[in-house]
Amino acid sequence: MEILPVKLCAQGSISLAGPPASTGEATLTDLAVDLACMYRLCDEWGYNEGDSSNFTIAVKTDDGSMLFFLIKHGVQWQDVTVRDIILVNAAGDVVHDWGCGSNEACPSSAHFDVIGFHIRRAIHERLGANGSVVLHTHMPTATTMSVMRTENGGLVFPIHQASCRFHDNVVYDEKFSGLACGPEEGYAEGNRVADVLTGGGATSRVRAVFLRNHGPMIVGRNVWEALDDLYYLHRACLFQAEALKTAGGDMSRLAPLKDDIALATSRQSDHVRSLKGWKHISSHRTRLLKAIPSIADVC
Questions:
Q1: Within 13 A of 160's CA, how many CA atoms are on the CB side?
Q2: What CATH number should be reported for the domain holding residue 12?
Q3: Residue 105 in this model has a pLDDT that exceeds 70
């Protein structure tokens, strides 16, 4: 059941259905299943944010336009299946609903988080292939860091190899001005966040951003790199929070690595990050689908 000719990624598949070197094997349904599994995993990991729609996968059609995978509004993360996934265009029109099964004529009345979608749409459009996947959560430890002052622990310090993964790969957005109140405001906010990610340039210079007083966001080229980054960002923040707790909040008792060591460790991580990330996340996908086959059932 494929509805449109789509280029999943110029460099190859962005789906967990195909390993990093594969080209063209993944389908739209594969990506819809990926998104369902991502929500299930993040619920298992404690990143749940009620029924909010905070993840988006973007693909390009053959005519160059973009389509976006979203979850329907009102679905608990632990319950998501492929039937809760929809595909929308840049205008926010639903062009496919996996809840309709194989009936392509089925009209979708699916509701989704319109404002959140337009925030992430702007980021997808600005970052291109480097922003094929955008993940935003309020996972507790990383979000806690986002509400702390910089001098009191509101930065990812290079105190562990998980932290070094993000050395020179994270930025901090210090401007929180409330909630966007409509699609246009959402799109403008997404462009503002994209400016932070790119430093005002054309492509993303980092993979993570902390939105001060809000929470973290990850951008990635494919499903496994983005979700693996989200997992390890949480781990880095958890280790830092536990260290500060043990130190009674005394920053001077942390043992940060020297900048050259942290940078070298980051570069070493980059060499193996994609393949290790695929093995990590695809193994979870396999486990979930084996335990709950209905996640991928479109009928």
A1: 16
A2: 3.40.225.10
A3: no
